[in-house]
UniProtKB/TrEMBL annotation:
Name the UniProt record assigns to this protein: 7-cyano-7-deazaguanine synthase
GO molecular function: ATP binding; ligase activity, forming carbon-nitrogen bonds; zinc ion binding
Annotated pathway: Purine metabolism; 7-cyano-7-deazaguanine biosynthesis
Example GO biological process: tRNA queuosine(34) biosynthetic process
CDD domains: QueC-like
Enzyme Commission number, as recorded: 6.3.4.20
Cofactor(s), names only, from the UniProt record: Zn(2+)
Amino acid sequence: MNALLICSGGFDSVTLAYRLASEGALSALLTFDYGQRHKKEIDAARLCAQQLKVPHLVLDIGHIGRQLSSALTDDIDVPHGHYSEENMKLTVVPNRNAIMLTIAFGVAASRGLDTVALAVHGGDHFIYPDCRPDFIRLFADMQAQALDGVAEVGLFAPYVHTDKIEIARDAARFNVPIAETWSCYEGGELHCGRCGTCVERIEAMTLAGIVDPTPYLDTQFWQTAVANSALANDKANAKADD
């Protein structure tokens, strides 16, 4: 495998970068500047590429991102809580992965690479339709048609059927410098500890038994968010049973 990894600089994609590098399968990182407020993740991706000694491509698609309304790109408050909550849909950037993957396949084909890698995982399925297994399968099929006779490029998404806990275990297994990754949607000086991605990050490492060296502004909120999510799910299940 000679993989081009779409790397945001977040915990998930950097972990996959280290996993691929350990297997000698990482050829380059591709990062997108789509106008996200948390641009610090781009610096984290650049650092990852330097550490793993692979090329780092940064593509500015901000003119596209400005047309895609989201709490990540617009002047909209980033919601706090667990990803399973309804208000987290504000963080959906419509078609983001579809757009990025389309570009990534073209870049991979042009560079003679045989794989595009993506770190989407099962925890993304709640609200992000372009992170779900059916999307990944169908997109790979579509690209096989789009590049028919031009190049053979596969799609590698090893976490799509698992969860972030497995990513946390891989982070420990492959010695990922966790504190040097950036996940928080707020884009402040420190991870806020309250947005959906911070809550999910802390929860996953706690459940995996991994020490999280990341400094957070709020280290307790995640427990309340997880508890509220569990309570809401219990109520929904009870209502469905009625």
